[in-house]
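Run: sequence + guanosine-5'-diphosphate -> complex structure.
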Amino acid sequence: MTLTVLLLIIIAVVVVLGTGIGLVIGRGRKTLPPPADLDRLTEEVIEHPEHPDPHLEDEASPAPEPATSVDTIERPEAPQGRLVRLRARLARSQGSLGKGLLSVLSRSTLDDDAWEELEDTLLAADVGVTATDELVANLKTRVRVEGIDDPERAKAALRDELVGLIGPSLDRTLNSTGTGGLPGVVLVVGVNGTGKTTTVGRLARVLVAEDKSVVLGAADTFRAAAADQLQTWGERVGVQTVRGPEGGDPASVGFETVQRGIAEGTDVVLVDTAGRLHTKSGLMDELGKVKRVIEKQAPVTEVLLVIDATTGQNGLTQARVFGEVVDVTGIVLTKLDGTAKGGIVIAVQRELGVPVKFIGLGEGADDLAPFDAEEFVDALLA
Ligand code: GDP
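>> structure
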């Protein structure tokens, strides 16, 4: 009897200790973002009627966790090869587009109906009218001139044309190298909810994986949650975040971040900005001021515009507005995993005349891949 009681006590102690140890280990491995923060400000420069601000989605969710200190510094995945890992995801999301295109080309005769169907498929994938017309015209000519009459050759010709439209030789490297001993400065802009803060966090990981030192600037001072979110991203990879008071001047956060970067001899300064401004002139004033104030200390080497691939035409309107107010030098297309309309890569590059440099293919910390035209098309037509 007493032996049984003793045994039960020992078992209870082991279970309690085990749970405690499990919890401690669990904390060390805790994966933080994807963040679900809850900003309730509603003013945006461009509305998303079909894609409401994700920060507003769940009114009942608890308040965002404040930035916590992260126990273990992670070693992020090196950017080379990320698209290879994410290729299946890209192929899965773009499967219907690829299949649609290939099924037309596999017909025994490419008559007017077939060409029309090809055109419709491209338009439905947000490729845009002019690019679609161009692609179909070129492909038609090749089929005729080269006497293409089998599906494999037609597929190869389509691959060439798609790669050509996307621009295989555009420079897609992130301009993150400063000159004269100054840090490179990357400004990340875009409408609220597109994945801006996530992108800054993921870019920090890309740079850390390349052994670069980084400092982050939380110039989205409208939302304390955005700064917390950014700080958490930074802490995961041992990178500092400069932040200002809530509602403070975004330009002064930008200034201080660059100042810190210069003082500490940091390789790259990444600045997150606010994307929630009522009017175009408000947007222009603020982004213009952030850039001007930063440039008192060091030139901005890259302005990345973040576009949510699932927003279609709305994303293109955003591209136009931002393109008018700030000198965008590269595009980050997020959430490509959530849409079969990969043609937006082509449309948005044409709209702005600047290359897509990164694509987001999931909510994971390393689900941001450097964009490559050939790999993209191959995944599409896989
Ligand atoms: P911000 O308001 O522009 O700073 O947007 P956030 O960075 O807070 O991101 C908004 C939401 O989009 C978050 O839930 C992110 O996890 C999500 N998100 C960002 N990039 C991607 C992506 O490539 N794929 C998917 N599926 N979700 C993404």
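>> summary
The domain at 173-380 is CATH 3.40.50.300 (Rossmann fold). The mean pLDDT is 83.
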